[in-house]
Amino acid sequence: MCGIVGYIGNREASGILLDGLHRLEYRGYDSAGLAVVDGKQIKRVRVQGKVAALASKLKQEPLSGSSGIAHTRWATHGAPSEANAHPHCDDKGRVYVVHNGIVENYAPLKQELQQEGHVFSSETDTEVIAHLISKFLDENTPLELAVKKVLKLIKGTYALLVIAVAEPGKIVAARQSSPLRLGVGQDEFIIASDASAIANYTKQLITLGDGEVAVITRAGYTISELHGEVDLDKDIEEIDWNLDEAGKGDFPHYMLKEIFEQPEAIKNSLRGRLLVEDGQAVLGGLRQVEDRLRKIKRLHLIACGTAYHAALVGEYMLEEYANVPTEVCVASEFRYRKAILDPETEAVLVISQSGETADTLAAVKEAKEKGLLTLGIVNVVGSSIAQATEAGIYNHVGPEIGVASTKAFTSQLTVLALLTLFLGRQRNMSLVIGKRIAEELKALPLKIEKILAGSQLISQLAKKYVRVNNFYYVGRKYNYPIALEGALKLKEISYIHAEGAPAGELKHGPLAMIDSNFPALFIIPQDSVYEKNVSNLEEVRTRGAKLLAIATAGDNRLAGLADEVLYIPKTLEMLTPILSVVPLQLLAYQLAISLDRDVDKPRNLAKSVTVE
Ligand code: F6R
Question: Residue of the nearest CA to atom 8 in ligand 1?
Answer without folding.
Answer: 405
